[in-house]
């Protein structure tokens, strides 16, 4: 029998040997806040306004208005939203509040709301339906809120 071979280590370089590039290679969806095609999480303690932040981003991206009155949206576009914790009427009230603050009209916003009773990212059928919905509507921003409701354990 031969002795087991040790696993190969991961490649490592010193920071000064890392490649350099242009100042920002990724375009911003929301200037200095969220890059285009980014995947990310808005995290925080319960009741720390995470959903409000996600909806503010949705209104800003759909309308091209500044997010939080400070961060420009250089390339607005459609937003696809799944809000698992809010009823349709509660979600509408929240969006109407933000739209009023932005001096916009809800009917003119390019936000599409997924109204399915559940969406589970750990189920193949739901993954396929979400991809079909994304392909159909081509959003520049997809919001799935909250993450805790998006798997079968919930």
Can you offer a commentary on this structure?
It contains three helices and five strands; from the N terminus they run ββαβαβαβ. It is an alpha/beta fold. The chain is globular and about 70 Å long. The longest helix has 14 residues, at 50-63. The model has no long low-confidence stretch (mean pLDDT 91).
Record keyword descriptors for this entry:
alpha/beta
CA(first)-CA(last) distance? 49 Å
Mean pLDDT: 91
What is the CA-based Rg, rounded?
20 Å
Oligomer: single chain
Record field, number of beta strands: 5
Order of helices and strands: EEHEHEHE
Anisotropy-based shape: globular
Sketch the major β-sheet.
3 strands, parallel
What percent of residues are in strands? 5-15%
Low-confidence stretches: none
Helix content: 25-40%
Number of helices: 3
Q: Quickly give the structural class.
A: alpha/beta
Strand order of the largest sheet: 4-3-5
List the helices and strands and how they pair.
Elements lengths: L27 E3 L3 E2 L14 H14 L15 E5 L4 H14 L9 E3 L10 H14 L3 E5 L9
Parallel strand pairs: 3-4, 3-5
Antiparallel strand pairs: 1-2
Helix pairs in contact: 1-2
Summarize the structure.
This protein has 154 residues and is an alpha/beta fold. The chain has helices at residues 50-63, 88-101, 124-137; strands spanning 28-30, 34-35, 79-83, 111-113, 141-145. The longest helix is centred in the middle third of the chain and has 14 residues, at 50-63.
């Amino acid at each position: 029998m031969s002795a087991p071979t040790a696993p190969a280590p991961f490649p490592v370089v010193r920071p000064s040997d890392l490649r350099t590039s242009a100042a920002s290679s990724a375009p911003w969806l929301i200037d200095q806040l969220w890059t285009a095609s980014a995947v990310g999480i808005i995290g925080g303690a319960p009741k720390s306004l995470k959903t409000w932040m996600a909806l503010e981003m949705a209104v800003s991206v759909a309308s091209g208005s500044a997010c939080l009155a400070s961060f420009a949206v250089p390339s607005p576009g459609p937003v696809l939203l799944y809000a698992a914790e809010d009823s349709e009427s509660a979600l509408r009230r929240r969006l109407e509040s933000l739209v009023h603050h932005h001096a916009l009209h809800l009917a003119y916003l390019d936000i599409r709301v997924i109204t399915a009773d559940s969406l589970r990212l750990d189920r193949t059928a739901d993954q396929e339906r979400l991809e079909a919905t994304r392909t159909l509507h081509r959003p520049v921003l997809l919001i799935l809120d909250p993450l805790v409701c998006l798997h079968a354990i919930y």
